[in-house]
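Sequence, please.
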């Protein structure tokens, strides 16, 4: 009787898992442009890999989808070609603000996915910001072109059981990062480079931002980490002169990324050894990790300790050019800790000016958002020891051991702003991300013209 009951229980569990499996399939199989006239996305565009969507204020933006399988390969190269060909066509007649987003754990490119909805919100608000910048400067607005890079971030959809897929999906994320992702992102950057090649330096305005969340952050880092290390060494400017650090595109932004700190060691060490950066230095990579991200704060190191049981490590020392002292780095801790929770690599804190209930903050108008971004850009340019950079209702505070305008930022985020591993929907965080994008993608000339038009006085120190 007990055996029969046990077998029935096992059978029920297997049936539950099978019924709750996330499909191993490509979602966006139609490659022609679907134009949606309504802000509320209709089902007409669900299967389209290329969409033109409205903001609700007379403007629109592009949203493309490129998908990868569990081995990290493109589902269909024709899908990639269709999206990038459209982006190239758009760039031929106007400047683009391209934003690529790689989702993380428990998400996919399926219609209705919450990450897609959040990404659309960011793209729509950037479009409104571009329209506002155009009004202030008299220059044509850049066309916002978003690219959602989808993979199977979850294999089951059964509550509680899906949490057991963390390590299995981490392995898949590593495959995606080492697969076709680098090709797609490099081709996207080439669109920017091609546009730059036919424009004089003062008129270059096409920009690229890459965002990764959770395991999507690991995907992006796996795809671009070595490129970022190489470009830190090969700075922009005359040969033999240490100048601004060149990133990939214009900004790489990782939110609650799930990869070990040891993979970030080279970038952190190089930035710590440089004591100062020029006023023209812009952010290159920004890692945002919530103090309330318990998946990477507790579960991640627990699993890493098991998987690295027989690995050997040793403590290392590195020179900190700001504090003029050597820093001890516990390599064993870096090898098991998620990058954002490893204190020696931390460069900034992000916290609210005042505590308010989540969801009670109002959305800034495009005028308020642009004004705040221009003030934040000026504060970044004039960063001094002890200075705190305001981003609307948030403060970005640099640690005492990090140089001003450090292009490799590791930011520890207050739990009021990001409540857990998957939470990226707080209006204040969306506004911060949007303003960081504007800081990294607006030219100095455009910022100066917009500031003058909005009567923002230049900083004197």
């Amino acid at each position: 009787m007990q055996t029969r009951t046990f077998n029935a229980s096992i059978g029920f569990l297997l049936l539950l898992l099978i019924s709750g499996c996330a499909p191993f399939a490509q979602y966006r199989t139609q490659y022609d442009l679907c134009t949606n006239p309504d802000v509320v996305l209709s089902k007409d565009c669900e299967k389209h890999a290329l969409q033109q969507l409205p903001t609700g204020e007379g403007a629109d933006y592009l949203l493309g989808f490129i998908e990868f399988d569990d081995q990290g390969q493109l589902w269909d190269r024709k899908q990639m070609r269709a999206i990038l060909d459209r982006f190239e066509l758009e760039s031929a007649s106007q400047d683009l603000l391209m934003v690529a987003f790689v989702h993380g754990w428990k998400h996919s490119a399926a219609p209705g996915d919450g990450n897609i909805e959040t990404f659309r919100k960011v793209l729509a608000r950037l479009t409104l910001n571009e329209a506002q910048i155009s009004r202030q400067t008299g220059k044509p607005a850049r066309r916002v072109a978003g690219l959602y890079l989808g993979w199977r971030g979850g294999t089951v959809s059964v509550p509680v059981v899906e949490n057991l897929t963390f390590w299995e999906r981490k392995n898949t994320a590593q495959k995606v990062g080492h697969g076709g992702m680098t090709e797609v992102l490099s081709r996207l950057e080439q669109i920017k480079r091609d546009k730059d090649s036919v424009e004089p330096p003062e008129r270059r305005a096409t920009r690229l931002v890459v965002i990764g969340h959770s395991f999507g952050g690991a995907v992006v880092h796996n795809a671009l980490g070595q490129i970022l290390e190489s470009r830190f060494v090969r700075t922009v400017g005359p040969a033999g002169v240490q100048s601004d650090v060149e990133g990939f595109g214009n900004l790489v932004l990782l939110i609650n990324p799930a990869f070990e700190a040891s993979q970030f060691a080279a970038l952190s060490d190089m930035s710590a050894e440089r004591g100062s950066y020029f006023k023209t230095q812009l952010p290159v990579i920004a890692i945002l990790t919530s103090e309330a991200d318990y998946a990477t704060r507790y579960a991640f190191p627990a699993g890493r300790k098991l998987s690295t049981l027989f690995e050997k490590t040793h403590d290392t020392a590195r020179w900190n050019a700001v504090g003029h002292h050597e820093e001890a780095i516990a390599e064993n801790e870096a090898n098991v800790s998620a990058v954002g929770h490893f204190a020696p690599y931390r460069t900034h804190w992000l916290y609210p000016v005042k505590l308010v209930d989540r969801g009670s903050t109002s959305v800034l108008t495009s005028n308020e958002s642009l004004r705040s971004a221009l003030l934040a850009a000026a504060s970044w340019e004039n960063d001094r020891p002890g200075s705190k950079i305001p981003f609307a209702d948030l403060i970005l505070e640099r640690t005492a051991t990090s140089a001003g305008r450090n292009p490799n930022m590791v930011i520890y985020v207050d739990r009021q702003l990001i409540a857990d591993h998957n939470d990226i929907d707080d209006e204040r965080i969306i506004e911060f991300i949007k303003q960081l994008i504007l800081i990294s993608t607006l030219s100095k000339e455009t910022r100066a013209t917009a500031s003058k038009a909005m009567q923002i006085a230049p900083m004197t120190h």
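The chain has one domain: 21-453.
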